Amino acid sequence: MDLAKKILKTNFASLQVLQYVHDFGSFSVAAERLGLTQSTVSYTIARLRSIFKDPLFAREGNRVVPTQRCRVIVGHISGLLAEFEGLTSEPDFNPAAAEGAITISCNHYERMTILPEFIPKIRKQAPNLRLRFMTSSALGEDQLKRGECDLLIGPVQLTGDHIFKRHLLSDAYVYVMDADNPLASRPLDLDEIRSAHHLVVQFSGGWQPLYIDALKSHGLSLSPMVELSDYGDIAAYLKGSDLIACMPRRLASTLEPALLCVEVPIPVPLEIDLFWTTRTHHSKLHNWVRQTLAESI
User: Fold this and answer.
1) Per-residue pLDDT averaged across 248-271, rounded?
2) What is the fold, at CATH topology level, of the domain defined by 95-297?
3) Which residue, 18, 185, 190, 210, has most beta carbons within 10 Å?
4) Residue 238, C-beta contacts closer than 8 angstroms, at least 6 positions apart
5) 116-142: per-residue pLDDT in tens?
6) Do the domains 95-297 and 3-88 match in fold?
7) Phi, psi dihedral angles at 127 (to 5 degrees)
8) Rounded to 5 degrees, what are φ and ψ at 102?
9) Mean of the per-residue pLDDT values for the chain?
10) How crowded is residue 217: how many other Cβ atoms within 10 Å of its Cβ?
């Protein structure tokens, strides 16, 4: 019997269990998300192993990792389950009656520039909807594909048959410094950037701001005087000092007026996109949340 026929002989609930174990890498988490007991999930996977003649998962440390055949099966059923969910959902979506939880992965930039508009909209229109935010660092793609988050926001590039994308905003980098810094009186050139005293944000997980590579392409490697792990309290270190820091314009606009912005001589665009997977693509709730997020820019 070929794969398509085996899938058709299996009920939707069992296939959903398979997808959740695949996405979350855990029997217990899948059981919790689906409102089932762990023994029910284990029994379902055992039955699917018999149907598909494949182990489906192998344990590695604290996670279960899908076999190659399991990945193929989930690739076939993801769209099918999403479409079925769309068919069985209420024809008219009412945000005021919406319940459940949405998990969004992003970083400091998105939390400061997008969420302040987004969260009040959700609270006003869907007061029973719970929001959970997690830090993506450089792990956002894995978080999304494992089902740890429903949405990923950031300046990243993801591809795949089961990944969907919506552009949210375009930004650019500027240099920020104290208003009394001598460099604040004019546009900077590359020689001034080379000799300046830099405060640089080096994010955990290996991801670095896009302007770093742009400067390197012009033969300029920075030797920062101060390094931080995020933008959180950057204003306190720039105010009254000779330090300069390169950061996105929208984020810089949230800092206090005592700091000034100066254009970067090399254009460095910053594109912020929204990503999700087939798991939530057809959900009316998730579609509304995505639209509300886009309208919060």
Assistant:
1) 92
2) D-Maltodextrin-Binding Protein; domain 2 (3.40.190)
3) 18
4) 176, 177, 178, 199, 244, 245, 259
5) 999 999 999 999 999 999 999 888 998
6) no
7) -65, -20
8) -120, 130
9) 89
10) 9
